[in-house]
Amino acid sequence: MSVSFSDVIELDRVQPTFAMPFMHRVINGKILVTNDLGDYAFLELEEFTRFIQGELTPGEPLYERLAERNFIAEKVDVAAQARRFARKKGFLAYGPTLHAFVLTERCNHGCQYCHSSVVGMGRMDTDMPISTAEKAVDMAFQTTAPWFTIEFQGGEPTANWDTLSHVVKYGQEKNKLAGKELSFALVTNFSLMTDERLDFLIKNKVQICCSLDGPEDLHNKIRIYKSGNSYEITTGWIAKVNRRYEELGLDTSLYRVEALPTITKDSLHRYEEIVDTYIRHGCRAIFLRKLDPFGFAASTYKKLGYTMDDYIEFYRKAVDYILELNKQGVEVMERHAAIMLNKIMADEEPNYLDLRTPGGAVIGQVGYHPDGSVYSSDEGRFVAAMGDEIFKIGNVHEASYTDLFTQDTVKALLLASTNQSQPGCDSCTYKPYCGLQPEYNYKTQGSIQGRMADSTWCKKHKTIFDYLMEKLERADPEEMEIFRRWTTNRRQDHFVQE
Ligand code: SF4
What is the 393 CA–ligand 1 centroid distance (Å)? Predict the structure, then answer.
């Protein structure tokens, strides 16, 4: 339904002081209203008209429903809502919580979509030396956050095993004094994994993540590995790691290898097989990540890429399929949806760095290159790999923590990733739940500010929000129960260092 508000609303009857400031959008023929606190409600057109004309009276169900959701100005408990807002923006009190260490640029895979400036296995000169790694750990420990994660990335980070294992031991030692909630995560293709290395990772509580692009032919076509079958290696180790978690007595519904697919052109019509592959290998969550615009030659993008409309169609079908499986008793969630639903339904801020405002660049995450250079994020590093150092904020060998985190680049990134100051976002219905990534804007639109009117970032998020809101408006009891499961969060305390 398209609604022409000028036909149904008499402007001279609108009572601007009756309602709290709100945003609105038509979903399933109803008017979805949201406010900056993160509340939402669906209204019939007639209800919406009465609401903005201030015709609702205390005691009537619509008044009470909207008052409960902070849409009626006179009923808002300002102190309580300020506390709620501060809780959700709690991340602003802290420095970055994700510190990505690129331990090497070497890799033995030739994945077609790889963003990193990967080199051959002989290029040991691209490894992060232990001396640089220690300086990066020292820098990470200066974060003002009480908890943080050091994530090992590459290239293939296990190719520089000496530095990886040293960072774990060095970090644990430092933490005896610092007493932070420290955790380690490893993103690996498993090709260099051995039982001895796995013992070390399990013993030292290093969380393990990997890529799994779907069924064997699809995975191996994209993730090219000349020395073996990447799919068999990956799924074999997933099973082995999951068994080790089980042997430790960990809750296997919570502790599993985290696998991620990247969606390429060949994936689009194979959503059922991709989801089935994840379930077959014991995964409970799947993050249907769109191919990023970073790091490709135009010819590669032509081969692997697709339009945002293609992705959105894929996404809707895939999540519908995931919901059907859940209705049949299979517990599997889609992570993008779960993150958004946590914000909408559970009133939580999951601190997913791409979908918070201000965004995660620098104040949520930083990336450390093998030579000690520090970047605003993974994506900032990918832009650098393409020859543009705009997102470099310094080097651990030269800069102090204050130098890195208080410079003009950081301030510019903060402003550019605040959706209250972004034209388009400032009045968007999804502003309370959405976020921006200046690196994406820069890569796709040539400016860290971006233009949301023709941004594919915006289109993707707006459409997924629409999809979820359509579900919430229909409120199918089975789907609502599934969504409630997806928004029940449990901490993985096992991975926090003692
Ligand atoms: S990026 Fe798009 S969907 Fe997100 S808040 Fe901005 S305008 Fe809305």
Answer: 27
